[in-house]
Structure formats: structure tokens, C-alpha cells
Amino acid sequence: MPELPDVEGFRNVLNTCGRGRRIRHVDVRDAGVLRGVTARRLRREVEGRRLGRPVRHGKLLVVPIGDGRALIWHFGMTGRLVCCRAAEPLHPHDRVVLTLHGERQLRYRDQRKLQGLRLAAEPRELERLLARLGPDALEMSRPAFTKLLSKRRGAVKGVLMDQSSIAGLGNLLSDEILWRARVAPGRAARELSDAEARHVFTAMRGVLATATRAGRVPPRRTWLTGHRDDTEPTCPRCGGRLRARRVAGRHTACCDHCQH
Questions:
Q1: Secondary structure, 3-state, 213-253
Q2: Which of 59, 95, 187, 228 is catalytic?
């Protein structure tokens, strides 16, 4: 599932492939990924416009196209943004294709179609959408982060994954962060000590820094992420068996020996 680092990678794709280029044609190959806009309206309001500087907030990628309008991508479970030459064959999961001047194409490719593409026709629409989200995980200060944890009743993993509290973290990142901080994912967030909350924040910033550079959550063997899909997953720190459980409704990997 695309999380903050993946979307940052998609932002770089759009920056290098499309920024400043005019959209010649919009081909909606599957309207099932459109949210709040029809294919006809999307073509009418987007064709001929120039792609501006893309910005990311949490898992959303926002691209201004002039006159207060913006395209907004939410990549769901399997979405991605791909830069191609216009002559390259289409992939079966290419749902929306933007053909740009210079014979380049930006293709929204998504197998499961759980989210997709929106059009904000005016700044207030974008503001309302962003207002539902918490601060971006990369922009939170440590005092704001520790204050947030101290006020929440639920499991700390659930707080990390709640996009209205912190925008950008998903299942893989949350497990990795809590494993690095040596905090059990099912612990009540407000019961963490100040020192534990600081450790979680430090782990979050470190994991995001590395993952953002990679454009993904890297499956390194020194990371929890690099072991969770093994047949018999073990903790890369202590060698103990990783435990699989459900926390905050999500599949969770953790080490009972390292995380308390």
C-alpha cells in the first residue's frame, strides 16, 4: 500500500515528467477511479492546462493546473503514477492517461481501484479535503507529536495510522517505527511515558528520512519490514520469532521480546 515515501516518489515522477508541461489530452480508460468528477468534466476542465508544482500532504498528491484548480491523487492500496513515452504500450491497469506536450504520458496505474483521482475546481474544495487530515508526518514537531499521543485513548499503532491525526503513515511504516522505538503496538498511546513518546517520534523521523530517499518502505534485512513476509519471520534485532496479530484492525508484526 503506498504510504508517505511512495507518494513522495510519485511527486518526483510528476516533477520530472510533467511539471510545466501542457496537458494535450485526457484519456479516462476506467472511470471507476474517478472521485467526484465525470470523465467528460475532467477532460473539459483539464485539457489545455499546464501542470504546476506538485505538493504532497500525507498520502495525497496535489498538482495545481491553474485558475485555482488542482488534480488530487489518492493511491489507495495499489495505485501508482508512471511516466512513459506516448508510444509505449498501455498496461492493463492504466486507468487515466494524461498525454503531455513532448510526447510524454503520465499514467495513473491501479489494480484494485480503491481510491483514485479528484478534481478540485476551486481552492475551497482542496481546503475542505485537506482539513480532514492531520499534519503531515514529516512536518510534525516533537512537542505536537507527544501531546497528540498523550491525549489519545486507543492503541498507539491506531493513532499513528489515523490520517486525521497524522497524515502519511500506513501499516508498514507504523510497525517499523514502533519496532525501532521498542514500543508494543497495542499499548495505549496516552499511557506511554514522555521518554517512550520521544523514542517513537525519533524513530518516525529516522524511518521516514530513509524511506523517503528510497521512494518506498525498503525491505532491508536490518528492518522489521525486511522480515515480516518470511515463512518464519524473526526479529532482525534479537533473532526471536516475530508475532503476527491484529491491532487497530490491521495485520501487525511485532517482537514480544523487544517491544513492551
A1: HHCCCCCCCCCHHHCCCCCCCECCCCCCECEEEEECCEEEE
A2: 59
